[in-house]
């Protein structure tokens, strides 16, 4: 069996390298392929490890946590546009309007249609609020540009920056759901002061400070031995990511926020330097391998009974979250935005749900006592699988049409 595992791992890594190039603009994404492979492998091959995330909460939490922080680092490094109130106006709208509306709508669906209690409904809204930087490569910024004057198109920029920030901003609301399971005295004050203000503030502060220090070291240290940008060491991106995440979590800050802010700050230190491309390529390759593993295991969990006992109400809610809640909330959030109508439709539709939602659910279930945990896993799994399929089929054609129309308008 060990030999089979090694051979399968090698084949999976090779496929992860080849598939993005082989698929091209086809209406099939790499996550769709590995999801199907996971379902088939666990249905046909006996003796494979149990992939059930509900049974292995800690392993699920740590594996998805690693994948998310790697992806957040890559998203921050890829963004070419400097941070600013007006330059990031679309992002702020998605975070301040679309995300709360989505959480409220999902929570109400969980309460009214599925009969969940307040804590479980709030948790469902929190874990399905963040869009995912892991599974959304087709609709996000591809890589850093060496030209400092080159800007990202608004659609890809909005989806990348939104995913980079709302993955961390979902944490306060996850803690809110956990607090509702205890309902002890003073939890409201604790949630506002600690879970919202302190943890978020520390995440931003540590990301800025560590990113600034690392940027100084990478690009302008007095000694050339410390100027790592001159040595093209790509794995340093992992060092920056782990250092930022670990230090922030040690003081109870939001490490997700810190990692993304750190990556943006490093990028701002020397925006046109080619070292950013080296760092991003290393992160992208690491992210791809982790994504392959997680999606493969998700397919295996489906094959071994993760969706057993699913009710039609749960299917209806999952479909509504993907096809109604996010598109409507996205369009509402972008009312009055400077983006064109075509861009608004694409941004509103591609609220990809993925690995981040799995992490938050595993984290919350290991920290609190929620009713109907099996139902929560079924709904989140259906939303993630539905996002992989629906967005995987439509992403490349949609972006191709949008790019073509944009080029025609420019001409």
Automatic annotation (TrEMBL):
- Membrane found in the keyword field: yes
Residues annotated as transmembrane: 6-23, 30-48, 60-80, 101-129, 196-214, 226-247, 290-310, 316-337, 344-363, 375-396
Question: Which top-rank group of organisms is this from?
Answer: Bacteria
Example of a GO MF term: antiporter activity
Q: GO biological process: what's one of them? A: proton transmembrane transport
Keywords (A to Z) from UniProt: Antiport, Ion transport, Membrane, Transmembrane, Transmembrane helix, Transport
Query: What is one GO cellular-component annotation here?
Result: plasma membrane
Q: How does it sit in the membrane?
A: Multi-pass membrane protein
**Which ranges carry the Cation/H+ exchanger transmembrane domain?**
15-397
Matching entries from InterPro entries are given as: Cation/H_exchanger_TM
The entry's localization annotation reads:
Cell membrane
Protein name in UniProt: Cation transporter
Q: Which organism is it from?
A: Kibdelosporangium aridum
Taxonomic lineage? Bacteria, Bacillati, Actinomycetota, Actinomycetes, Pseudonocardiales
């Amino acid at each position: 069996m060990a030999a089979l595992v090694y051979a399968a791992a090698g084949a999976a890594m090779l496929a992860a390298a080849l598939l993005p190039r082989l698929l091209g603009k086809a209406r099939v994404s790499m996550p769709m392929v590995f999801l199907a492979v996971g379902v088939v492998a666990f249905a046909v091959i006996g003796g494979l490890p149990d992939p059930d995330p509900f049974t292995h909460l800690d392993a699920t939490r740590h594996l998805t946590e690693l994948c998310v922080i790697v992806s957040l680092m890559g998203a921050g490094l890829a963004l070419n546009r400097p941070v600013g109130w007006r330059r990031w106006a679309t992002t702020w709208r998605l975070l301040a309007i679309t995300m709360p509306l989505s959480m409220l709508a999902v929570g109400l669906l969980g309460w009214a249609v599925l009969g969940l209690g307040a804590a479980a409904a709030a948790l469902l809204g929190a874990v399905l609020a963040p869009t995912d930087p892991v599974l959304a490569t087709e609709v996000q910024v591809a890589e850093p540009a060496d030209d400092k004057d080159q800007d990202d198109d608004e659609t890809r920029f909005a989806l990348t920056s939104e995913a980079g920030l709302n993955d961390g901003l979902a944490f306060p609301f996850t803690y809110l759901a956990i607090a509702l399971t205890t309902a002890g005295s003073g939890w409201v004050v604790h949630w506002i002061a600690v879970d919202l203000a302190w943890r978020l503030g520390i995440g931003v502060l540590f990301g800025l400070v560590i990113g600034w220090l690392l940027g100084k070291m990478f690009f302008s240290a007095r000694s050339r031995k410390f100027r790592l940008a001159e040595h093209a060491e790509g794995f340093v991106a992992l060092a920056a990511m782990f250092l930022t995440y670990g230090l922030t979590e040690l003081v109870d800050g939001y490490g997700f926020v810190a990692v993304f802010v750190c990556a943006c700050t490093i990028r701002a230190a020397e925006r046109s330097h080619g070292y950013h491309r080296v760092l991003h390529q290393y992160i992208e390759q690491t992210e791809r391998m982790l994504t392959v593993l997680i999606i493969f295991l998700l397919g295996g969990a489906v094959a071994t009974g993760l969706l057993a006992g699913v009710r039609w109400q749960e299917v209806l809610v999952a479909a509504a979250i993907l096809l109604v809640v996010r598109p409507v909330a996205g369009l509402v959030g972008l009312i009055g935005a400077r983006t064109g109508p075509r861009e608004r439709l694409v941004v509103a539709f591609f609220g990809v749900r993925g690995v981040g939602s799995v992490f938050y659910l595993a984290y919350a279930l290991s920290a609190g006592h929620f009713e109907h945990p099996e139902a929560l896993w079924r709904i989140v799994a259906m939303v993630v699988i539905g996002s992989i399929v629906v967005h995987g089929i439509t992403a490349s054609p949609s972006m191709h049409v949008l790019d073509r129309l944009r080029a025609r308008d420019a001409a």
